[in-house]
Every structure is written in C-alpha cells, then in structure tokens.
Amino acid sequence: MVAVKVVVSDVDGTILNSRHQMSQRLKEAIRKIAEKNIPFVLASARSPEGMKQISQKLAVTNSPLAAFNGALVIRQDQIIYSQPVEKEDVKKILATLKVQFPTIAVNLYSANEWYVDRMNQYVKLESEITQITPMVKDLDLLIDTRPVHKLLLIGAVAEITAAKDFLAQEVTTSALYLSKDNYLEVTHRTVSKESALQAIAQYYNITTKEIMTFGDNYNDIPMLVAAGVGVAMNNAPLEVKKVADRITKSNDDDGVAHILEEL
C-alpha cells in the first residue's frame, strides 16, 4: 500500500455521529496524525461556512475544505478549485421556479455566502439546522456578479419531485439530485468529490493514490474509488461498501478514529 499523505473525510454520517457530535477519540486521532504531518481535510455537500465550526473543533483550520460536493475547494480565503453552475442554467431555473413552482424556497450558495430571495418556513428551518443566517437579496441581480456553486431548492415533497422532473428538461450543464425527499440540489454536472480530491492532491503535490478517504453515502463513491484507500462506514449502504477498499465501524462507534489510529 502507498503511504497515506493526506486524509479526506465526509462529515455527516461519517465523523459526526447520529447525534451530530464528534468524539474526543476522533479529535485525539486527528491530532496524532497531524504530528506525523498528515493533514485532515473535510469534504461535504455543506457550504464552507457550514463546516467552519467543525474544522475549528477538530483543529484543522489550516487544511482546505471541499464544499458543495466538490464544487469548491477553499483554504481560508484562498480558492483552490471552483466549478460553479453555468449562469444560463441558473437563470433558466430561477425563471421556471417563479412561474411554475413559486412556493419553492430557493437557496443560492456562492463561496462562503448563502443568499435567499425571501425568508419562509423552509429557509428558517434550514437556518436553525445550520446555525447560519442567510442574506435576503434579489437573486436575479446577484447572479450577474457572483459565481453560483450550488442551488438548494426546498419545498413539499410532491412539489420538489415535480420540479426535478420539469427542470431536468430545462438545464443543459447542471446535475439535479435529491439530498432529502424535499431537498433538490443543483450543481455543475462535472462536480463530484473526485474532482475535489484531484484538486486537493494537486494542492499538496501528491497523487490521489496517496490519499485515504472516508464516506458513508452515494455522493462519497467517486472519492472512495479514486483514493489509494477508500474507507466506507459500517452505516453506509451496501452499494457504497462494495466500492470501498475497507469497511470500518459505524459513525456511532468511532469508525474514522478506529482507522486513523493505525496510521
């Protein structure tokens, strides 16, 4: 096996347990690999702001963050990799939603910023979950001056399902996927955690085969496959476990720390 020079890990369902907490054992394991000059990098569908507190608690604020499923890799204020949604697709989506699905909440993410066109029940709930307050702006004006790394559309389940089917016919360069039954996410179709992994490897001047990755869900598959050692959590679906090089304990049993302690 090639020596592991960098560790990249998913957040929810991987380093966070089912109570959305991190263990002291994990913090200690990350501290020990840091002493061996092995950086620990977070990779998530979350925004950079949504990972900031976690990186602070793990004392990995000097490491890059791979956000929005790989659409953005950022280290503090330095952008390492960026693949925004094409503006034409964003304009089509916003126009379609206004006419066809006006009650769907539109969340626009650009680097560290979160914008909405109005505060409604769905936005307020997302704000409570993330502990971040979005800025209310005219999104149509905003997209001419900001890169859009992700759109998050939230509504009733039936409405979101219908919107997904409708928008699939409208967009040309974007990927549409459900992260929850009523959460429809939009990123550029080339975005994946594998592209983020390649950017991280280039940043550290290593190959992806010198990286160990941890994940628990379908969006983690590309980086589990591309890494030298891809580790699936025991709480992952069978399809995710099948592509992994190793399977560790669950997120509730310190699965990440269990493997890091071997390094």
Question: Explain this structure to me?
Answer:
This is HAD superfamily hydrolase. It comes from Enterococcus canintestini. It holds the Pfam family Hydrolase_3. It is globular and about 55 Å long. By secondary structure, the chain is an alpha/beta fold. The protein contains ten helices and 14 strands. The strands form two sheets. Strands 5-4-3-2-1-12-13-14 form an eight-stranded mixed β-sheet, sandwiched between helices. A hairpin with a 2-residue loop joins β10 and β11. The model has no long low-confidence stretch (mean pLDDT 95).
CATH superfamily of the largest domain: HAD superfamily/HAD-like
Q: In the CATH hierarchy, what is the class of the largest domain?
A: Alpha Beta
| Low-confidence region ranges | none
Characterize the overall form. Answer: globular
The main β sheet shows up as: 8 strands, mixed
Q: How much helix, percentage-wise, in residues?
A: 25-40%
Specify the structural class. Answer: alpha/beta
Radius of gyration: 18 Å
The CA-CA distance between the termini, in Å, is 12 Å
Hey, roughly how much beta strand do the residues contain? 15-25%
- Topology pattern, helix = H, strand = E: EHEHEEEHEEHEHEHEEHEHEHEH
CATH architecture heading of the largest domain: 3-Layer(aba) Sandwich
**Spatial sequence of strands, sheet with the most strands:** 5-4-3-2-1-12-13-14
SS summary, helix count: 10
Protein name: HAD superfamily hydrolase
GO molecular function: magnesium ion binding; phosphatase activity
Pfam family, one: Hydrolase_3
GO cellular component, one term: cytosol
